[in-house]
Amino acid sequence: MDGSTKGRVALVTGSSRGIGRAIALGLADAGFDLVLNDIDRQAVFLAAVKAEIEARGRRAFVVHADVSRKAEVTAMVTEAIAAAGHIDAVVNNAGILIANSVEDLEEEQWDAVLDVNAKGTFLVTQALLPHMRARRYGRIVNIASIGGKHGAPLQAHYSASKAAVMGFTRVLAQEVGANGITANCLCPGIIVTDMGRTNLSDKANVAKWVDITALRRLGQPEDVAGPAVFLASDASAFVTGQSLNVCGGIVLS
Ligand SMILES: NC(=O)c1ccc[n+]([C@@H]2O[C@H](COP(=O)([O-])OP(=O)(O)OC[C@H]3O[C@@H](n4cnc5c(N)ncnc54)[C@H](O)[C@@H]3O)[C@@H](O)[C@H]2O)c1
Q1: 165 lines ligand 1 (CB under 6 A)
Q2: Does position 235 have pLDDT exceeding 90, yes or no?
Q3: Using one digit for the tens of pLDDT, what is the confidence trace for 5-49?
Q4: Ligand 1: which of 16, 17, 19 to mutate, judged by most atoms within 8 Å of the beta carbon?
Q5: Which H, E and C letters describe the chain, residue by residue?
Q6: 20 CB less than 6 Å from ligand 1?
Q7: 32, 137, 158, 230: the active-site residue
């Protein structure tokens, strides 16, 4: 990235591991300072990511919060702005997947997945918007999924949550565009993380996914970092309301 990212600050939710961690490190490599979020029980791992970012010569701040709880999100955003000075970009990455069939799905499982994936994205975005509007600048990057476009058995509620994120983002882009704020989604495919392994239960399953991927391999968390840096920076200034597949060519559009 060019010097336009110098002094920029990004908040990445769920950044103690997996895709969120890779995006945070990618943003740091591109020149961003970071505000790192995750739930309390990930504190040790989040502290390690903070150290990795500081070792790259960037500033890093930790703010714990459950993104599905409004009071915690409000406090997180206040704390983040106070610590870092301002927030230029947010990556709504925190997410959960609980595999279950539609017939067996419990109401609590539906609520938990929709609360973190869809409501969490809304709550964090809503809390940041006054700050971004006042500065007439913002980059909102929401991590959806190709699962929200197509989906797989046992993931109907997950698919619904990610389709919700994409619909939310398309309307958000229209509401905030006049204020210099862009909003886009990334739709990862099968990425090897704690969550991604849900889709990779045995060798046959792995072979199946590789077989339907044009690039003939599984994705790594770092594969999502480059597109996230692009959408969080000025390189994407005229891109908004889009949902970009980062899936090695499983879904083609
Ligand atoms: N791995 C994949 O194959 C894949 C594919 C498509 C989309 N995604 C999406 O990418 C994002 C990251 O997934 P991942 O694969 O890195 O999963 P992961 O489980 O490895 O990481 C998710 C992170 O989110 C955090 N988190 C969970 N609930 C939270 C909450 N309420 N508040 C704050 N943080 C919370 C977790 O503690 C964890 O650090 C998710 O939104 C996921 O749906 C993943």
Answers
A1: no
A2: yes
A3: 889 999 999 999 999 999 999 999 999 999 999 999 999 999 999
A4: 19
A5: CCHHHCCCEEEECCCCCHHHHHHHHHHHHCCCEEEEEECHHHHHHHHHHHHHHHHCCCCEEEEECCCCCHHHHHHHHHHHHHHHCCCCEEEECCCCCCCCCCCCCCHHHHHHHHHHHHHHHHHHHHHHHHHHHHHCCEEEEEECCHHHCCCCCCCHHHHHHHHHHHHHHHHHHHHHHHHCEEEEEEEECCECCCCHHHHCCCHHHHHHHHHCCCCCCCECCHHHHHHHHHHHCHHHCCCCCCEEEECCCCCCC
A6: yes
A7: 158
pTM above 0.85, yes or no: yes
Rg (CA), the chain: 17
63 lines ligand 1 (CB under 6 A): no
Q: Annotated catalytic, 158?
A: yes
Q: In the structure encoding, which two tokens stand for residue 120, read together?
A: 């969490």
Residues whose CB falls within 8 Å of the CB of residue 2, separated by 6 or more in sequence, listed in order: none
pLDDT value at 146 more than 70: yes
> Closest residue (by CA) to atom 32 of ligand 1?
66
Measure 178 CA to ligand 1 centroid, in angstroms. Answer: 31
Spans of all domains in the chain: 3-246
Taking a C-beta distance cutoff of 8 angstroms, is the pair 91, 143 a contact? yes
Determine the CATH number of domain 3-246. Answer: 3.40.50.720
Judge contact between 200 and 220, C-beta under 8 A.
no
Residue 218 Cβ contacting ligand 1 at under 6 Å: no
